[in-house]
Amino acid sequence: MFSTPLLQQDYFKAVVTFICLLLMADAKTFEKLDYSMYPARVCSLLNSNFNITLIAMKGIQELDTIVLTSDMSGIKVIGDCEFYMGLVWPNGVIWRITEYSPVYEFTVSFIPYKVFSHVTRSSHLKIYDNPKKARLSTKYSSYKCTKEEILNYVGGSSEEITYKVQVAVTDIQVQITNVWYDQFSSTVCECGVKPWFPIIIIGESSFPSTYWQLFLLILAAVTFMVIGAVATFLTLLKLVRVKRKRRLLRKLCGFRRGKKNDCWQWTNMR
């Protein structure tokens, strides 16, 4: 069917990608950002270079620093973006972005063990410019901010106000090496002080997150299908053989009408 190994490899990748998309098609995790609110500030990072510095904060204390660059192995940027300054991990640790750009929204996909040692599982980042747009489905989070606080949060006031965001982390877990603090609640996180109003929510990617996991999943499915097909075929074959044997014995019995006992034995043979 395929003339070269390269074509075979491309076909396999296409099939794997298609099946993976089917498996995750119904996972609606984030609401779409309304780009019409800021039409003059839209930009694209698809072909742009960026350098983001993330600082892990516990209160006002700096815990650790991560630098993300556009050429880093395992990072993939998708879509448009808005300027960003604050990051909330599900464990309550805040990552402050010290350098920001006038961009809208973008997604960064982390491949496990490829980007940097702090992230130990496949994860996704999404950045939003206000709490309303960052709202997840009710399964994941709910935001407790008053109307006045939200106005200040998006730049309506110059006052420095701390905002609380309640994030349910039932299905959103990202482990960070050496940055896990019990004194931070797993459900109530301090999102930051103005002007930290853009929030990044991190969500764990769905299974399968790697090609070998997807391969094992497909292999197991195919194996069970083959076993089921073989079992069904053998059962049908046995039924056909029994039916044919009984039909043949009935014909033989018709030629031996005088010997009823023998006929009864033949027609009940298995």
Strand order of the largest sheet: 3-2-7-6
By helix and strand content, what is the structural category? alpha+beta
Q: How many β-strand runs? A: 13
Shape: elongated
Helix content: 25-40%
Average pLDDT reading: 44
Beta-strand portion reads 15-25%
Domains, number: 2
Runs in which pLDDT lies below 50 for 5 or more consecutive residues are: 1-9, 17-50, 52-59, 72-209
Tell me the series of helices and strands, N- to C-terminal: HEEEEEEEEEEHEEEHH
Which sheet architecture does the biggest sheet show? 4 strands, antiparallel
Rg, nearest Å:
31 Å
Give the helix tally. Answer: 4
> What is the CA-CA span between the terminal residues?
47 Å
Would you kindly provide a brief summary of this structure?
The chain is α+β, with helices and mostly antiparallel strands.
Protein topology:
Blueprint: H1 5-23, E1 43-44, E2 51-58, E3 61-69, E4 77-78, E5 80-81, E6 86-88, E7 94-97, E8 107-110, E9 123-128, E10 141-142, H2 147-153, E11 162-167, E12 188-193, E13 199-204, H3 211-254, H4 260-267
Antiparallel strand pairs: 1-5, 2-3, 2-7, 4-8, 6-7, 8-9, 9-13, 10-11, 11-12
Helix pairs in contact: 3-4
Write a concise keyword list for the protein shown above.
270 residues; alpha+beta; 2 domains; transmembrane helix; membrane
Structure explained in plain terms:
This protein is α+β, with helices and mostly antiparallel strands and 270 residues long. It has 2 domains: 28-205, no CATH class; 212-267. It contains 4 helices and 13 strands. It has helices spanning 5-23, 147-153, 211-254, 260-267; strands at residues 43-44, 51-58, 61-69, 77-78, 80-81, 86-88, 94-97, 107-110, 123-128, 141-142, 162-167, 188-193, 199-204. Strand 2 and strand 3 (61-69) form a beta hairpin. The protein is elongated. The relative contact order is 0.13. Mean pLDDT is 44; it is low at 1-9, 17-50, 52-59 and 72-209.
